[in-house]
Description:
Oligomer: single chain
CATH topology: Trna Endonuclease, Chain: A, domain 1
Mean pLDDT: 91
Radius of gyration: 15 Å
Low-confidence stretches: none
CATH architecture: 3-Layer(aba) Sandwich
Strand content: 5-15%
Number of domains: 1
Largest sheet: 4 strands, mixed
Number of strands: 4
Distance between the termini: 18 Å
CATH class: Alpha Beta
Shape: globular
Number of helices: 5
Amino acid sequence: MSEHAEQSALFSTLALYTNKYPMLQWVHAIPNGSYFHGHWGTIRKAIEEGLTKGVWDVFVPVPVDDKAGLYIEMKWGSNKLTDNQKQFRKDVGEGYAWAVCYFAEEAAYAIGEYLGIEELKGA
């Protein structure tokens, strides 16, 4: 598996529940650079369009209680948060919920926990 495969699996799982929980249709990925390795033309275009190092991978733009949304950073293997990702979390602050996840199931659980969707907590 890979980070890409786990994140893809997460969105496949979310698609199964979107009809029942329409707010899941707004969960989205944020291409943050890992998808653009190796091709300078693609990287340059992404930077021109606002690519920002450190922004986390997945965003759930649904306010819950005192949080404006949930950011998820997908990792793989022994990978840890980069300094830019830590700084993003620090600067954006406590107005959001945060989760670092290594598997699709873990990310689905985090979304289920945040939104109160029990089915996702067992997905």
